[in-house]
Amino acid sequence: MRLDDIPARCFAGVLPSIMATCSADGTPNVTYLSEVVRVDGRHVALSCQFFNKTKRNVLEHPLGCIEMYDPATFEAYRLEVRFDHEETAGAVFDAMRVRIDAIASHTGMAGVFKLRSADVYEVVAVERRDGYLAIGESVPVASEVTDARPKSEVRGIQLISQRVCCARTLDELLGSVLQALDDVLGFHHAMVLMPDETGAKLFVVASRGYEDTGVGAEVAIGDGLIGTVARERRMLRMSGVENELRYGRAIRAGVSRTRDRGRLAPEIPLAGLADAQSMMALPLVANDRLVGVLAVESRARMAFEEWHELFFEIVAGQVGLAIDNVVLREREADEEEDGPVPRPSQRLDAAKTIRFHVADESVFVGDEYLIRNVPAKILWKLLREHQKGRTTFSNRELRVDPFIGLPALRDNLESRLVLLRKRLEEKCPQIQLVPTGRGRFRLDVTCTLALEERA
Length: 455
Hints:
Helix content: 25-40%
CATH class of the largest domain: Alpha Beta
Distance between the termini: 72 Å
Radius of gyration: 26 Å
Strand content: 25-35%
Strand order of the largest sheet: 2-1-5-6-7-4-3
Order of helices and strands: EEEEHEEHEHHEEEHEHEEHEEEHEHHEEE
Number of domains: 3
CATH architecture of the largest domain: 2-Layer Sandwich
CATH topology of the largest domain: Beta-Lactamase
């Protein structure tokens, strides 16, 4: 057999591989491997996080044997390998480092559990293990291997491109992209996060498939899988997430018994599905600037295949540029004047008490938290103006308002308005932001408001 004959899912990390080595005096050692990466048709790379027996052995005696398993059919493959060299920089090392960093961050071990080197081995021989499954035993059906590939990948990209090109607003763009991923590929759980004004955090601005939309939830740049993808601006695909986190927690338990235990941080919960088994996150970049992160996940262990990486990279490139173009179009419309927009007749609901807390810049509806920071200040300005009789507003006046305090460049106002609109729909539908034109909107209130400002 050739190395390329082994199914790609064997390298996904769903089932751990096993490696056997021996020292110069012949003492054997067998260990589980956290990751095996196919570098090319003749080489594989193994992650080295510790100066362990395996690394010492191959430096003394470079031969080893790796056994890999197909998570769909349970067939076994055996690789005879020879240690070639280690890499501490470059494409292979960086791709493996991002994966390790994401696991370390999720399990509170950032800076403690890290990749020391990507150890590259030449594959001398490959064989399928005969008799690994009992004689006469039928090969299991790969029930979790879903063929989500559209009949034509090009057709799938075309459908997504059409929806991206037809979007007129940021809200419409993000919603149509997430719906297209569901319609075209069958991925029901996805979200888009965008950076805040400081560039230190991401916040969920659109999601699909979750009971709780999570809109407004924050992820610090560098934290967890999504934060690591944002910091590194590199795509990351993980299968068997539960296994990866279990491995990280086992390492954490060992570190907690050493002098390094003081460096451990609290574990970071997964951003979306608590029981996600497959995850893919991609940076959305426009003009060499991070404009967001697209995260897709699934409860199936092998939801993503190698071809998905290329597919999603193309989609991410289109979405990143589309976000930038939509924002530019909305800003170009700041100076445009629209005619008067008739306000529909409305029946007032029960009174609502809206409280703005100055100390942490948060807004509550009654005793229920609604939103904070920049979107909270935008809402408070709008409500105070509404009490004076105003109902129509423009993005431009929000940008220059000193109370809101947006930066002169990269203010992310459009994404903040999308977030505010969605939070109001979820928590206080009696208050709505209704677009009336590019860069303009109307504030509709269908209840009596009582505004309170607290220090």
